[in-house]
Write a structure and sequence with these properties.
The chain is mainly beta. Strands 3-17-19-18-14-13 form a six-stranded mixed beta sheet, with no helix packed on it. The protein has a six-stranded antiparallel beta sheet with strand order 9-10-11-12-15-16, with no helix packed on it. Helix 1 (about 1-40) runs antiparallel to helix 2. The longest helix is centred in the first third of the chain and has 37 residues, at about 1-40.
């Protein structure tokens, strides 16, 4: 922008020069003519007009001034790192940022705006010691192969890392070649809380929060009041897996919402409050024994027109080899992300009031970033908007250059499917195909979605579960293939071999009231429900029993492999006992912790045998709640983990091999075998 003003100044100077020269030439020419007349001097005149010569320079300079002025005055889309943004504009300064926050949150928004302490220096070249054997194991259930997602448990087949929830420790178990469990010393995270772990060949990556107490600053009566609040600091710690020494740490003033690990690049998507003292994201890094502080520049923050500004979304890339950090941010929130090998999409669903219809409408803003994996950088590409909300990352997918998404709405329910494609000229993510009618019966909302190349499976539910199969081979014209109806609904769908599809979710009665959990097996080519297995709430032996599974809302709690034909998940239940009256005066309650393992075989001779009877692994109840959280498959042994114990179970012999009771804050006894 500065260069344009310099050119404008030069153009103005040029016009002034020619204008003054033209006026002076006229003045002196008149004086010369008067002198010639007084002295009777005859002068031969040139055929080309004198004034045409002088006027030519002035006209050209005025034309240059006009062009330059137009280029400066007319506001063009702002460039970010030489990339012109049409859908987004850079913030550029603190003044503009504060103005945007104030203006966007005070305007009356209408539907007409929318078109359809230092760490010791350590050696960062880590080593895991002697080469360990390759083991056959099932890793974290992820949406896209090659795009790793964090979880509370990670393994490489030789070592299991377990971040127990709501504690500041990571438990580590080595698994010997003869399947024995060796309990290693815990990794104490001190003030860092975590539920998110990643593994590389040499690194353990821990993502979590540090909570700090901040007293309010009172100018009066501060000696009488000690009020304050707790703030969190989003933190990434990278440890050497061999010696558990801290290699690198990043602290931010943001709330990590989601993240993905692709090869050697960690991408973090976080929310930052715009009510903080510092409007721009702050970063504090510890590496090579030094502390480095930095702030995101205003030119790396951008915004979208007609988008509510309640927070700031920050996209950060960390290279796990060089520990270089690169960030971008935009004004607006994030609800879910979708990550592929090449892109990250952030989505923000919100409601907007239509003053004409007197109703609130649901919209979702989609922002696409292209990933530079080698340099660990996310580059803004396009943005778009669709009607409806998104409530699950599996409602989104990218395939062959198209972004596909399913949405639903509140109130007057309407489910839609959109296919979008990048328009690199306008920088917009444009809708090129859609289904906006008949996706679900009246009142049915979307419960689960799974994309598989040119096909998408969509489950809607009110009283029964229609499972829709939709053909996406023509992106501009998605078409229904079939639908399958059953009682209950799936919260998760997993593509099996060939035409098989497995669903996990809730069973329900004829009125649509859920009464347990279920697994279903489908033949999608022939639109058939082949087999299902139901686990009713009252099966615990009491009319007042209940159970749930984290897998019903978190797919990472599922241990699942189509290659091995296994699906497994934890179940935690409660039931009342010793009650002889309906008032339950003498009742007591007991919790049970179990892990269900099913085999799925689509080529079984009998349809009823496609889903096997479950193998049930149990943990002993304790005086405090301690349910099984995850199961890990290594060489046909299932290791189940809870806060109080780890157990190994042989899937061949159906025998418990080993159970280790773990020391907890509720039990000061030493570890018992």
């Amino acid at each position: 922008m500065l260069e344009k003003w310099i050119i404008l100044g030069l153009a103005i100077s040029l016009v002034l020069f020619f204008s003054i020269s033209f006026i002076l030439d006229i003045f002196w020419n008149k004086r010369l003519e008067k002198f010639q007349k007084e002295n009777d001097i005859d002068v031969n005149r040139n055929s080309i007009s004198f004034f045409s010569k002088r006027l030519y320079g002035l006209v050209v300079s005025v034309l240059v001034l006009s062009i330059v002025s137009a280029s400066v005055v007319i506001v063009a889309p702002n460039p970010i790192h030489h990339e012109t943004l049409y859908a987004a504009q850079t913030v550029e300064s603190e003044t503009i940022l504060k103005s945007l926050i104030k203006d966007f949150n005070n305007i009356y928004r209408d539907d007409k705006n929318y078109a359809d302490g230092m760490f010791p220096e350590v050696d960062s070249t880590t080593s895991v010691g002697e080469e360990k054997p390759k083991r056959d194991y099932i890793g974290t259930n992820v949406q896209v192969e090659g795009v790793e997602e964090a979880d509370i448990v990670k393994t490489d087949g030789n070592t299991i890392y377990y971040a127990t929830r709501f504690t500041n420790k990571i438990r580590i178990f080595d698994i010997s070649i003869d399947n024995k469990i060796n309990v290693r010393e815990e990794l104490d995270l001190e003030l860092l809380y975590t539920e998110s772990l990643y593994l590389t060949e040499t690194q353990l990556i821990v993502i979590g929060y540090t909570y700090n107490y901040r007293p309010y600053d009172f100018t009066e009566a501060q000696d009488n009041f000690r009020w304050g609040y707790y703030s969190f600091t989003g933190t990434v710690n990278v440890y050497n897996r061999n010696n558990l020494k801290l290699i690198y740490s990043l602290e931010t003033d943001t709330n990590f919402y989601e993240h993905r690990l692709i090869e050697n690049s960690l991408f973090l998507v976080s929310n930052k409050s715009i009510q903080d003292d510092f409007l721009t994201p702050q970063f504090k890094e510890y590496k090579n024994g030094n502390e480095e502080n930095s702030t995101l520049d205003y030119t790396d923050i951008f915004y979208f027109k007609n988008m509510p500004i309640y927070s700031m979304t920050v996209i950060t890339g960390i290279n796990l080899t060089s520990y270089e950090v690169k960030s971008k941010a935009y004004l607006g929130g994030v609800n879910f992300i979708y990550g592929s090998l090449n892109s990250i999409y952030t989505v923000n669903s919100f409601s907007d009031y239509d003053s004409k219809t007197k109703q609130y409408n649901n919209y979702t803003q989609i922002v696409k970033y292209e990933l530079d994996i080698e340099n660990s950088e996310a580059k803004y590409i396009t943005a778009g908007r669709v009607k409806g909300y998104i409530s699950d990352q599996y409602w989104m997918d990218e395939y062959n250059g198209y972004f596909r998404v399913v949405t639903s709405t509140w109130g007057n329910v309407k489910n839609r499917l959109y296919v979008l494609k990048d328009n690199y000229e306008t920088k917009e993510l444009e809708v090129i195909g859609s289904i906006t009618e008949d996706l679900g019966k009246e009142g049915e909302t979307v419960k689960s979605v799974r994309f598989n190349q040119d096909v998408v499976y969509v489950v809607t539910f009110l009283q029964i579960d229609p499972l829709y199969t939709i053909d996406l081979s023509n992106p501009k014209n998605p078409t229904f293939i079939s639908d399958i109806e059953e009682l209950g609904f799936n919260t998760y769908l997993h593509k099996w071999k060939d035409n098989g599809l497995v669903g996990f979710g809730f069973s329900a009665n004829d009125e649509g009231v859920t009464n347990g959990l279920k697994i279903s097996a489908y033949d999608t080519d022939n639109s058939l429900l082949l087999d299902n297995y139901t686990m009713l709430y009252n099966q615990l032996g009491s009319k007042n029993s209940y159970f749930y599974s984290e897998a019903s809302y978190n797919p990472k709690a599922l241990m699942i492999s189509a290659d091995k034909g296994i699906i497994a998940f934890p179940i935690t239940g409660w039931y009342y006992n010793d009650s002889n009256d309906d008032n339950y005066v003498n009742s007591s309650w007991t919790y049970i912790s179990q892990y269900y393992v099913f085999y799925i075989d689509f080529i079984a001779q009998e349809a009823d045998d496609i889903i096997s009877e479950p193998i049930v692994i149990k943990h002993e109840s304790t005086s405090y709640y301690s349910g099984i959280e995850r199961g890990i498959y290594i060489d046909n042994i299932v290791y189940t983990l809870s806060y109080s114990q780890i157990s190994s179970f042989d899937l061949n012999t159906h025998e418990v091999l080993e159970t280790i009771m773990l020391k907890t804050e509720y039990d000061q006894a030493n570890i018992l075998r």
